[in-house]
């Protein structure tokens, strides 16, 4: 899900126009850029009203990018004519070009997404690359109507989802990314970051639902074009909402006072973290010969997912560090080593004292540490999907009855 845009109180109806034939403009040059950033906005859903607002922020932010060979590409499907835009800073003036227009399409389809990614990265070669994925998301979890793990939603022609495995396949054919930012809910999940670790240096997202206004592109845009600046980008993102925070009093999408949380993860540290988790799992297996107290853990560990447990789309995303700490206690020799590996993977993490959930309202972020992890329930429709994840397989969680 994409933030608390998830189900806004005041939804604007999607505006549909007659489909145009695909329109193509050949890029003005094919010289190498310092950096190409693609923002992929799968907004043909309940987030439609936010797409143009974010696009305007991007225009404002590009005015502060002083690198003439920096290129911002924005794919927008907001229920109108899907289109690919190019934004550049030309001597202080932001020049916007419509590069392509598409017929009405499923923007979370694998073929459709691959087409846009291939075109963008092939026609705008650069020294380095960044990607922002903008939509409803639900980390690794199954889509509600299918046994898939989804990271995007399109409701233009029925309801369709992008599978996590499909996104991984698409990224495997793209240039390596400096950063991958999910402007979406619940995506700071260790399982999801681990699934995509090979395709990007830095993985940025929120463990919980984030504000309706989403990423403050006018502020973070310059960092998107600075190599290795994922931590600074995440910090700038956070500081915008920290400056408005007052515990949610008087909150609206135009004046978001309900806080946020954001985490930037170093992907080359995720495999060492998986190895440290494996070592800790092996030690814990001896401590819990009859299996883990999952019900207890679900009560004691911070759960970022405040949706109702009776709802079909509830998953449960629990704080990873607190989970391991609760299990290990003071009786393990490997937990301190695990904690070192965890700390090495986090390059930036911050949260306001409380975050806002569409279901539960304001809730405490005490004990939050930035990355979530799943805790299964006794009867759980998600287990098949979870067991297929690389994180599950590489860390030996099956030893603990996961």
How are the SSEs ordered, and which strands pair?
Layout: E1 23-24, E2 33-42, H1 48-62, E3 70-77, E4 83-90, E5 93-101, H2 110-123, E6 126-134, E7 150-154, E8 160-163, H3 164-172, E9 177-183, H4 190-195, E10 200-205, H5 217-224, H6 230-244, E11 261-266, H7 270-287, H8 294-300, E12 318-319, H9 320-328, H10 335-345, E13 346-351, E14 354-357, E15 361-364, E16 372-373, H11 383-387, H12 390-395
Parallel strand pairs: 2-3, 2-6, 6-9, 9-10
Antiparallel strand pairs: 1-5, 3-4, 4-5, 7-8, 10-11, 11-13, 12-16, 14-15
Textual characterization of the structure:
- The protein is α/β, with parallel strands linked by helices.
- The protein has 2 domains: 3-268, Rossmann fold; 270-400, no CATH class.
- Helix content is 31%, strand content 23%.
- The chain is built from 12 helices and 16 strands.
- It has helices at 48-62, 110-123, 164-172, 190-195, 217-224, 230-244, 270-287, 294-300, 320-328, 335-345, 383-387, 390-395; strands at residues 23-24, 33-42, 70-77, 83-90, 93-101, 126-134, 150-154, 160-163, 177-183, 200-205, 261-266, 318-319, 346-351, 354-357, 361-364, 372-373.
- A 10-stranded mixed β-sheet has the order 1-5-4-3-2-6-9-10-11-13, sandwiched between helices. Strands 7-8 form a two-stranded antiparallel ribbon. Strands 12-16 form a two-stranded antiparallel ribbon.
- It is globular and about 65 Å long.
- Mean pLDDT is 86; it is low at 5-28 and 144-149.
